[in-house]
Queue: 2 jobs
Job 1
Amino acid sequence: MQQNVKYRLTGLAVILVSAAVVFPIFFDGAGYKERHLTSEIPDAPERPEIVRIQPQHKPLPDTSLAAEPASPVSLPKAPANVQKVIDKASVEHNVEIDIHNDQPVLDQEGVPVAWTLQLASFKDEANAKGLRKQLIAEGHKVFTRKQGDLVKVYVGPEFQKSRLEALKLTLKTDFGLNGIIVRFTTQ
């Protein structure tokens, strides 16, 4: 072997031996002290006592579906002076009022039955708002409802179905919309 290689191997052996002797002196673990921290977490609270409360009143009936209309109540004939006022108002406002032929009715819950005219259903809410704006400008009571992904435009509500039937014909000629008369609900 060459002399150069022997010197290198000897130097490497000296470095390894000195490292094996010096390494434990510096890294003996004498400077390491384990830290003991105190816990700042409070004790768990006591579990509350579970109290069962019995209802004092009976539950209200289910109103998710509208009650069926009851038979109409017969109204007495209006006095002559009241009939004159009704006739005058109906001529002035071009409204046909006849509470004896098309009487408002109450459902089985005692709530007045109202009707609305569903004019159109739109997928785009902007179209529904545009139609609503036009109908309001004409002086109609209009509202919209979102059902699923459709926005429906309604006119009403009215307690007399005959008024909506007349309005349906008017709107068909004015706007070209053939609506359907449906029961008014607040949902």
Job 2
Amino acid sequence: MSMQRRAAAAMAVAATTMALAGAAGAQDAGRPEQRDRPPRNVPPADQPLIRRIPEPTIAVEAGFGALGYLGATAGVGPTWNVRVTGAMTPRVAIEGNYTGSVNERATRGTSLVMTSLDAGVRYNILRADEAVVQPFVVGGVGYSGWAGEGGDAFALVVPVTVGAERLVTRNVKLGARFNYRPAFFDDLTVRGAATRTGGDSWALLAHGGGAF
């Protein structure tokens, strides 16, 4: 084989190799997994590997305040509350509540003791990062029972709540809420009373607790 033919063959082989390499590179670049794969960006050892800590999603709180009844059922008395809240989204959460209260019967001098359990859906009017406090509303359904003279062992309640709260530290929150609790299938009328009284009530509570 002459020198010219050897040079021409070498050039042909080199051109073919370069063409195949270019086609393979173009094919790899066109693959979605190659194009969309994020670059590796692991920080050095003197920087934190996890740079953002997730916001709390579970809160356990306790509250204390005053509760009164609509009508002449009983006077205003102390109330307390224990609540567990689970955040589903920045706007929506699920609440479970225990509420108790002690109120004095105005005409009898005896106490009416309430125990209530309910569950509700909470909607945050603003997200936590949109204002200095986070306003919210809650609607739910539950059970209430009253012990004492004229008490009723079972009633259906549909609590409606408005309130506001905020995180003080990453795991401590404080807030306040106003609660209206209409009751159904209830009768708290004292024997011999001229008018019927029921379990519709309102409550104003301050609350605080931990978020995890």
